[in-house]
Amino acid sequence: MAQPALGLQIRQLEEELGTALLLRHSRGVAPTPAGQLLYDGARDLLQRAEALKAQVKGLDASTAETLILGLSPSVSVLLGQDIMLEARGRLPNVFLSLFEAMSIGLIEAMDRQEVDVAFAYDYSDRPSLSGTPLFDEELLFVSAPGGDSEQPIALTEALARDLVLASERDPIRRTVEARAQKLGIRPHIVFEAQSVALMKSVVAAGHAATIMPYGIATEELRRGELIGRRIEQPLLRRLYLVKQSQRVPLRAEAEIDAFLGEMAQRLRLALGPLARPFTA
Length: 280
Prior knowledge:
Helices cover 43% and strands 24% of the residues. By secondary structure, it is α/β, with parallel strands linked by helices. The strands form 4 sheets. Strands 4-3-5-12-6-13 form a 6-stranded mixed β-sheet, sandwiched between helices. β3, α3 and β4 form a beta-alpha-beta unit. α3 crosses α9. The longest helix is centred in the first third of the chain and has 26 residues, at 33-58. It starts with a helix and ends with a strand. The mean pLDDT is 89.
């Protein structure tokens, strides 16, 4: 919707309700208490309407149910094809749609009810979602071949190297900077890029190194185009299975849970020693 039309709709709604819904300022807008109440209530009504439609459709056992499953890029590389192919045989009455995005994007998509279930990293609690921790994964120090050995690298040395990382909003960047702050040092970030392909290209050309999950660079590591080294004081990120709290269970919910549990275990095996048991 165009901005002028949207503004008109909001003003008409404020006039109808007799109260301001948004606080307008130079940096944008924020909801008033009344606006937040309206938003939360409307969202609940829409969720209940969708749940009712799903329940009505579910009465027809011949109708295939749709499940939108979110995967982060590293999980998609290691597991996406297996999930897509095996779901056809294991979940014959479920139409599985895969949605790939960075973990932040997956959580935002779930907030918008565009994704039902997701394998996502670094999830934080919120009322609309529930997350079950699966395991912790070590991040790798990744550099160009030729100059580095494949032996583990000290964290302080890794942070002192020329690095290319994503923006400050990226969870891996935040993990790196939080650990560096605890050590009283600053990571030497010389390039910033949101494109994973660009990051790998910069690293492969020898212009910088990076810190990333194994799944992101799997093919390049196998072909010897990049070298991955474990970090002696490992940087960890936690994988969660995240679900919509208010989502109406599908008829095949038990089979879906079992299938996703097996896929999570397969991912853990694929990561080998980089996957660590979840500890509270």
